[in-house]
Amino acid sequence: MKRIALLGSTGSIGTQTLEVVSEHREELSVAALAADKNVTLMEEQIRQYRPRLVCMYDSGAAEDLKVRVADLDVRVLAGMDGLIEIASMPEADIVLTAVVGMIGIRPTIAAIESGKDIALANKETLVCAGHIIMPLAREKGVQILPVDSEHSAIWQCLAGTPRRLEKILLTASGGPFRGKKREELIHMRPEDALRHPNWQMGSKVTIDSASLVNKGLEVMEARWLFDVTVDRIEVVVQPESIVHSMVQFVDGSVIAQLSVPTMKLPIEVALFYPDRRESATPRLDFAKLGKITWEAPDMENFPGLGLALTAARTGGSLPTVFNASNEVLVRAFLERRIGFTDITDGIEKAMQQHTLRENPDVSEILQVQQETEEAVRRDLKA
Q1: Residue 369, helix vs strand vs coil
Q2: At what angle do helices 318-334 and 304-314 cross, to 10 degrees?
Q3: Predicted confidence band of residue 219 (pLDDT cuts 50, 70, 90)
Q4: What residues pair up with 29 in beta bridges, in sequence order?
Q5: What percent of the chain has pLDDT over 90?
Q6: Contact between 198 and 173 (Cβ < 8 Å)
Q7: Do 8 and 98 contact (CB within 8 A), yes or no?
Q8: How big, in percent rounded to 5, are the helix, strand and coil portions of the chain?
Q9: pLDDT tens digits for 161-199?
Q10: DSSP 243-261
Q11: What is the pTM of this model?
């Protein structure tokens, strides 16, 4: 029985992870759950999966939850201290981190220092602190098991092969605005951006997909996960979301991982590694599929990817600026305070104004995050 500590249990990845647990009750159990402030869903999850430890990041939500589950044998924690306690709890065999944003960094470090394998669905952890996380994981002998569909695909393609890769081919769907020009994008509304053609995801990552910022974050994550330079990662658009990523080797051969677009498959791959289990995942019907389409990414009308590549090549604190400014701007877009193209315009401005810090530690990363968020908010009020 593998016991899971799940950070971000009420989000898209978290709820699908719990579906996987339900489908494999004889092999998986829930040691702990953590979420932000969705008390109603958390109570439902506690009653169904019976963890002994839970955390609500929002302190008010934690107090509410304590009252709701007073009849159960469960301890309710709050805030960052609660996340860290769950991430390092002895009863968990693996920590699946699916929280949104940079709050995932410190719990991930705590889990690694406690010797826990990490099923990673929080890309900001490696985007901003990959230079800290990956050496620490190697030092502690901990596995970082990618849950993002693209990184899981790359990881699967590399399994059992000599590390003679020439480049990583990181696929993108192109999002809901694929093919549109900037003059059209200016008028796009949140409800337009949230209509992803292939994936059901949380609102933040769906907006990031629409702007290609998400693919830029994934480039930065892949750079650390697979120990390659940014110039050996090529983004290709595959609108059907059937090929999840590929690896090209030095002899010219290319290995790809294909499946229907579902997050449950990479979740299962990470949780059951190194084994595979029978799954209810729908199977591909290649005759019905007919064709798979390929395009180059449009970085002229979607500059988010190019800005991410600049941040990744520069390194230091610049990826944190890219990520932190985007988080504030996406929230403002969802609240209809700015337009869609203002997101990448604001990221570019934040990057240009930043004074680079080389090799930042965790406290410096979090300080840069706070400074960037405050600067972007001031600009939004101006």
Answers
A1: helix
A2: 150
A3: very high
A4: 3
A5: 93
A6: yes
A7: yes
A8: 50, 15, 35
A9: 777 899 999 999 999 999 999 999 999 999 999 988 887
A10: EEEEEEETTS-EEEEE--S
A11: 0.94
CA dist list (Å): 142 to 10, 101, 336: 26, 22, 42
Q: Are 220 and 130 in contact (CB under 8 A)?
A: yes
pLDDT tens digits, residue range 125-153? 999 999 999 999 999 999 999 999 999 99
Asked if residues 106 and 128 have their Cβ atoms less than 8 Å apart, the reply is no
Rg (CA), the chain: 20
Q: Residue 149: which of 170, 164, 128, 132 has the closest Cα?
A: 170
The model's pLDDT over 100-115, given as tens digits with 9 standing for 90+, comes to: 888 999 999 999 999 9
> Which string of DSSP letters, residue by residue, matches 116-168?
-EEEE--THHHHHHHHHHHHHHHHHT--EEE-SHHHHHHHHHHTTS-S-EEEE
pLDDT computed for residue 140 by the predictor: 97
Question: CA-to-CA distance for 20 and 37, rounded, in angstroms?
Answer: 23
Q: Which residue has the tokens 């898209």?
A: 12
Contacts of 7 (CB under 8 A, 6+ apart): 14, 34, 83, 86, 87, 95, 96, 97, 98, 99, 104, 107, 122
On the 0-12 / 13-18 / 19+ scale of CB atoms within 10 A, 148 is: buried
Tokens of 276: 């595979």
* DSSP character string of 23-76: HTTTTEEEEEEEESS-HHHHHHHHHHH--SEEEESSHHHHHHHHHHTTTSS-EE
Q: Comparing C-alpha atoms, which of 127, 100, 150 is closest to residue 307? A: 127
Return left, alpha or beta for 252; rule: phi > 0 is left, psi -120 to 50 is alpha, else beta.
Answer: left
